[in-house]
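Fill-in record for Sugar kinase of the NBD/HSP70 family, may contain an N-terminal HTH domain.
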Amino acid sequence: MPRRTAATLATSGEVLRLIRTGEAVTRADLGRVTGLSRPAVQLRVGELLERGLVVERTDAPSTGGRPPVRLEFNAGGGVVLVAALGASRTRVAVCDLAGSELAGRDFAIDVEQGPDVVLPLLMDTWDELLGDRPRSMIRGVGMGVPATVEFAQGRTESARVMASWTGVLIPPIIRERFPVPVLVDNDVNVLAIGEHRGAYPDLDDLMFVKVSTRIGAGIIAGGEILRGALGAAGEIGHIPVLDGAGVLCRCGNTDCVDSVASGTALLRDLREAGKDVKTIADVTALVRAGDAETMAMVRTAGRRIGEVLAGAVNILNPSVVVLGGDVAEAFGPLVSSIREVVYRRSTALATRRLRIEPSRLGSGAGIGGCAVMVLDHVLSPEAVDESMTLSAVRR
Ligand SMILES: [Zn+2]
């Protein structure tokens, strides 16, 4: 986005951005930074005060004289509704405009029941969590779902886990009850956004890899999430490995890393080897018990994931690769195999400063990422200006 200069007239939305980032915190600052006249600054600040997006604070005088009134972004001036849907765990929350959770709840929803069951349940939960707060405070909705999402439309594409969700246009369904902007992205992208802002805000290039039932990645490049043309960037799960045994993947190709190294693949291979494993927790128990065959399979899975990641690292040159998801969280040997292969197979320059780290926020990154995604949108200068125009028309 081009930086505005004094030559272009700063809008109210731009004035809010300057106050939020701390670049200008008094009316005099705003005049200096934007080049706006005093009445013009007054008008824009007045609009932001009226909408509850900004509050005035007066500091105690230090050297005598009248202290300047400071302008602060008002995190309490609204709320966003967020939900991080997962195949195994889902969290629903209400956050303030700074992204802090005001109320939240964990769920064991079977997402396979489909949107007709799950979406009303989510909306009922938001209603309960909102409590007495006026519904006019709701500024937007942000959701992560375990499916590829055509981001601009909020339409699910191939659902990685849940077939009943394929091709669902989610925003209009939510907007019937909550008529605000609704942003939907895939679960791995929201984890990447959450981990980036929450744990690595100073790094511009991060790759978040989720190893769970499925394998996927969310890419932060140049400080922004990389979605690609339609939203399919980061689908590393369907990149084939070199030494696979011809395993047919559900996408129709063979030896995709997802079909040979995901949690689902590990469980399948261990069962074929005669192990009694039903869940990832059962596999964890075998690893803890030092079962040699299980350890070897987990390491092989790690090497295969590493092989695919090495290619991605060569293309993207991230500063940090974050490994998350329940499989990555549970298995030390998997993570060390991934590390070993990535460092060996990526180019020297791409790995010179590369860190490969376990997720710091865990599943908490999901809710944080949903909040950041929707707040970045609804608090952007363009969206703020548009909402002011709309409320002016309604008046
Ligand atoms: Zn595949």
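KEY FINDING: The pocket of zinc ion is lined by residues 238, 249, 251, 253, 256, 258-259 (CB under 6 Å).
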